[in-house]
Amino acid sequence: MSNSLFRKKSISDLIAATQGEKALKKELGSFDLTMLGIGAIIGTGIFVLTGTGAVTAGPGLVLSFVIAGLACLFAALSYAEFASTVPVSGSVYTFTYASMGEFLAFIIGWDLILEYMLAASAVSAGWSGYFVSFLNGVGIHIPVELTAAPGGLKGQVTYFNLPAFIILMIITFLLYFGIKESKRVNNIMVILKIAVILLFILVAVKYVKPENWTPFVPFGTSGVLSAAALVFFAFIGFDAVASAAEETKNPSRNLPRGIITSLLICTVLYVVVSAIMTGIVPFMNFDGVSHPVSLVLQVAGQNWVAGIVDIGAILGMTTVMLVMLYGQTRVMFAMSRDGLVPKVLSKVHPKHKTPYINTLFFGTLSALMGGFIPLDELASLVNIGTLSAFILISVAVIVMRKTQPDLPRAFKCPAVPLIPILAILSCGLLIYKLGAITFVRFFIWLAIGLVVYFLYSRKHSELNEK
Question: Does Phosphoprotein count among this protein's keywords (predicted)?
Fold first, then answer.
């Protein structure tokens, strides 16, 4: 039994599986991948979590973003090595299958299902708040009962978050029709939201009062690290770029560029924006504020920009949901092709060349979750799933360097094993700063996954049938 748990898929078999009737169309270049990464990263973090993070860390929030960004960068170098060497859908799930065996691959794939699905649903709730606010500003009012999940608004009776459901269904059908159409929409929205963020920086920077940065770290190192664990949610999704490996032109060159460039650009933007925000508004004033960027502009007396920022937030969160659902469907596509989940989830549309049943199923499921479940407490659960994936990919790079040292690698993670070990330690520290209830929920999800694996996946695995 132990041998079957750790049976591995060879790199040649993984690449061979990308040919034939279940092949996906190669449409993405390095610019598209960079836009995909920025689309995933710039959204809820910059428009919502900056306020919550400021309350937790004070002006030291800039250090929190640097710490979270470094943890991601260390892991990103490992992702870049694997994605360029094994250009197959599935991200860390596929890389783990090749390096550490089927059981751990299933566990991390199960983990990624949680990350992407809950992230898309959680972001849809934030998107709904900004969208309803924008509609109210132009005189259009949706009944309050249809603007939040049951119990989602304190003191209000709510039944269903209709805007959250609708936006996720629109994105689902966009992904259904193809990666070419999806990338065009994503690229346009990413360019627009970067323009909005740059506008905010240019308008707001002259209103910074350096005295608001004192004390810089009011809650000490603990506050900075706790905020880093929280704002890590802002960085999730860059790993979805690795899920695009199978649909990338010249993956050995374009994937490392897309992963690392998008991460560096986003980290710089987060640091600059959080520094300006805490320099204009004293950090304690962000407590309970769901539109922190708008608050900063109001204090600066630049209300005319606030409406533009709301549009930027709507665009920003839309691209995050698009990339989250994209990553979700590609991980499930890879697991289905390997037999670990039902084969129907890897059926490819003959015209659009997308895993269409998979896309419709998980898109609708995410939309229903966004409509019916208030997900304000689940950011930490998404974080622990992502951090676990980052730790495993770092371990996988070390293992593959030992077990397959002669494997041709188009991109090599530098300073192995130092960089992967730094990724493991930094991600482990951020996991430690998450609350105990997060661990309980996470282990419940993993327990369900173990039942699925031993009752279904191990028996139906392609390797088992061979």
Answer: no
